[in-house]
């Protein structure tokens, strides 16, 4: 099993550009999450999904959209990137509400 | 959600037990205590969780006080690879697994 994978690993965007981050899991988990981590801080939840076709807002959802069209994939979109969105983005999945499995992260820089 | 308080940093000698404390004085009766850790630049890793009773797994032990206002994560024989930031998180079962990360404790295991 690959576990949780994230694409891309690194990306540099210019202000106003858009992009989509892909999270994929091969563990048949129902729950999936997107977090961001700024330097020296803990992770903050952006959006999450409790099943295929469902999404919900987390702590810091503004400026992001998500979709869960397939159970194994959870996409995070930035429609118009801003420098404040420079961060490391982590995806996680979980079979229930206990143990979350995290991906390796995507390092995004917006100039 | 109950908030948690952890020391900012701790040191531990290699081979000794590492005891990481966490205060959660406002925890409610149906909130669980979770521990995760994050090794530099990687995604967080689940360690253990508990409700009332002490718990042990292959990674660590979790000791929860009788009044549930504090807990201690114990790594019985710390190694250099246990150097990481350790997060204590309190979570309701039915909140869709929405982890709220604080600052955590930076544990340095020294030879």
Structure overview:
The complex is a heterodimer of chains A (111) and B (111). Chain A has 111 residues and is mainly beta. Chain A is built from no helices and eleven strands. Chain A has strands at residues 4-7, 10-13, 19-25, 31-37, 43-49, 56-57, 65-67, 73-78, 87-94, 101-102, 106-110. In chain A, strands 2, 4, 5, 6, 9, 10 and 11 form a seven-stranded mixed sheet that branches. In chain A, a hairpin with a 6-residue loop joins β5 and β6 (56-57). The mean pLDDT of chain A is 94. With 111 residues, chain B is an all-beta fold. Chain B starts with 8 loop residues before the first strand and ends with a strand. Chain B is built from no helices and nine strands. The mean pLDDT of chain B is 91. In chain B, a hairpin with a 6-residue loop joins β3 and β4. At the A-B interface, β4, β5, β9 and β10 of A face β3 and β4 of B.
Summed up, the helix count of chain B is 0
Estimate the strand proportion of chain B. Answer: over 45%
Residues in helix, % of chain A: under 10%
What is the makeup of the main sheet of chain B?
A: 5 strands, mixed
Order of helices and strands of chain B: EEEEEEEEE
Spell out the helices and strands of chain A N to C.
Answer: EEEEEEEEEEE
Secondary structural class of chain A:
mainly beta
State the total count of DSSP E strands of chain B. Answer: 9
The biggest sheet of chain A amounts to: 7 strands, mixed
Most extensive interface: A-B, 27 and 24 residues
Low-confidence stretches of chain A: none
Shape of chain A: globular
Strand content of chain A: over 45%
- How many whole angstroms does the radius of gyration of chain B measure? 13 Å
Distance between the termini of chain A: 36 Å
Mean pLDDT level of chain B: 91
**How far apart, in Å, are the first and last alpha carbons of chain B?**
38 Å
**Unreliable spans of chain B:** none
- Overall form of chain B: globular
């Amino acid at each position: 099993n690959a576990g949780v994978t994230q694409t891309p690993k690194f990306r540099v965007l210019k202000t106003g550009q858009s992009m989509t981050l892909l999270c994929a899991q091969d563990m048949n988990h129902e729950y999936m999450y997107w977090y961001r981590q700024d330097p020296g801080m803990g992770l903050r939840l952006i959006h999450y999904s409790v099943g295929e076709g469902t999404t919900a807002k987390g702590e810091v959802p503004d400026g992001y959209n998500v979709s869960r069209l397939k159970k194994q994939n959870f996409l995070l979109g930035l429609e118009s990137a801003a420098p404040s969105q420079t961060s490391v983005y982590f995806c996680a999945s979980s079979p229930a509400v206990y143990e979350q499995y995290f991906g390796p992260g995507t390092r995004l820089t917006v100039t | 959600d109950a908030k948690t308080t952890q020391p900012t940093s701790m040191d531990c000698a290699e081979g000794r037990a590492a005891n990481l404390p966490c205060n959660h004085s406002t925890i409610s009766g149906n909130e669980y205590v979770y521990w995760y850790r994050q090794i530099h630049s990687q995604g967080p890793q689940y360690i253990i969780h508990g409700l009332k009773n002490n718990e042990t797994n292959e990674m660590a032990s979790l000791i929860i006080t009788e009044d549930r206002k504090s807990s201690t994560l114990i790594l019985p024989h710390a190694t250099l690879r246990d150097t990481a930031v350790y997060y204590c998180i309190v979570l309701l079962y039915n909140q869709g697994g929405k982890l709220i990360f604080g600052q955590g404790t930076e544990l340095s295991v020294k030879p």
